[in-house]
Amino acid sequence: GGLIVVVVVYLQFQGYYPTITETLTHGLFQTVSIATTTGFTTADFAVWPGVLPVLLIFSSFVGGCAGSTAGGIKVIRWLLMYRQGLREVQRLVHPSAEVPVKLGSKAVPQRVVDAVWGFFAVYVVVFSVLLLIMVAAGLDQVSAFSAVAATLNNLGPGLGAVASGFGAVGAIEKWAAVCGMLLGRLEIFPLLVLITPTFWRP
Asked: Quick check: pTM over 0.85?
C-alpha cells in the first residue's frame, strides 16, 4: 500500500500523466503487477521519472506469499529474516536471554530460520554470478541488474536494454536469463539438488 502511494504521488507531482485518473490507473496497476511479479504492464515504467523504475524493480525481490506461484524471495522469508535480526539485537542487549523467533504467538523452529537464511545466501550467490555473467557479456550495469532481477524473480520486464524484452541481447545473456528463470521458478534448491553428485549416488 505504501509503495502504491509513493508511486502515484510521485507521478502526480511530476505531472507525468495529464489526468489524475491516468496517474492512478497506471501507477496502481504497474506497482501491483511488478511487486507481485505478475509481469503485465499497461505502461512503460522503465521511462518513468526519478527513482521509480529502480524502486519497482526492488519491489519484485519481496515477491508474493509462501506457496504462491509468484517469484521473488517471498514475504514470509523477509519477515523471518527481520524477526531474526531483531532477535540478534535483543541478544546483544541481553546475552543470556532466550528469545525465540515468533510468527504470531508461535515460535518458529530454528531449523526453519536456518533454511530461510540458507535460501537467502544461495539466492545472493546465484544473483551475483548471473549479474557478473551479464556484465562480462557486454550489458551495462543497469540492464544487467534488472535482467537478473527480472528473470530470477520471474518478473518479466526490466530496464535499459531489456526494458522491452531480451531479443536485442546476445546469446550469452539469453542463456544466463534462461538459467535465471529456471532457478527462480523452482526456487533454486530443487535445481541445485539435481546437479549435486550425491543426489545420484545409490
From this structure: yes
